[in-house]
Amino acid sequence: MSEKLQGQVAVVTGAAQGLGYAIAKAYVGEGMKVALLDIRGDILQEVAAELKDAGGDALPITVDLSDAGDTQAAIDAVLAQYGTPRALVHNAALLITRSMLEITLEQWQREINIILQAAFILSKAVWKPMIDAGGGSIVYLSSGSGYKGFIEEVAYNPGKHGIEGLMKCLALEGAEHNIAVNAATPGAPINTPMSDSNYTEAQKKRWVDPAMLAPAFVMLAEQDGSGLTGHRVAARADGKWDAIDLL
Ligand SMILES: NC(=O)c1ccc[n+]([C@@H]2O[C@H](COP(=O)([O-])OP(=O)(O)OC[C@H]3O[C@@H](n4cnc5c(N)ncnc54)[C@H](O)[C@@H]3O)[C@@H](O)[C@H]2O)c1
After folding, report:
1. Residues in CB range of 130: below 8 A, 6 or more apart
2. pTM of the predicted protein model
3. Catalytic residue list contains 156
4. Which domains are present in the chain?
């Protein structure tokens, strides 16, 4: 177990399945208390029960992260029940491929809000508490879509570009407060429900279990302003990672 993380609080969004579930499980393994935020309340209860059965401390909170008020209420509940998090990992996202001709403003806003608006609200809520606590670590899940363009990603793509921009600003502002802010991206295709809906059969042949990427997220949770910050970190399937300095 990590001495830095044991007994500390983590918030993981999109924790009901896929990569978020793998990150939450790894944090419980490090002895952290983990707040699990997801819209899938049914699965979330099962995940929390599984983590508790394994001796962990988990707090399931059902939330629609596309909704500002719901998101604020969820993070307020975490702060009230667990106190200040050592780590916030905003991993939830929605990718529905639609062309510019097809997409409506409402659909566009929903994807953008889950990715970018929620990143802002969650980070704003923990920012002052983290300063008062002497530091912390914030991680946003990015993607190849955070720096390259892809067709039919009219919402997801600018959302991922947006969180990389927010990450760079907050990494600079967080330095004096000992807060690390990084973006992370899977350095390998991962076997998750999102991939199942969007990957080609060729990509599915080389996808990996998201649990193999978890060590990079343990390393990221351990960071503060004196460590790795302002980077895009690609979590690799061999348990290591590649970090690109974006500041
Ligand atoms: N799958 C990949 O290969 C891949 C590649 C690059 C980046 N990513 C990023 O990794 C992260 C995790 O991806 P994944 O493949 O595990 O995705 P996933 O779709 O399997 O899981 C996403 C989770 O977010 C939750 N979620 C969706 N909308 C929500 C909402 N409105 N409110 C609350 N929760 C909501 C879902 O219920 C789900 O549990 C995402 O940010 C994704 O963009 C994934």
Report:
1. 84, 85, 136, 138, 177, 179
2. 0.98
3. yes
4. 9-245 (3.40.50.720)
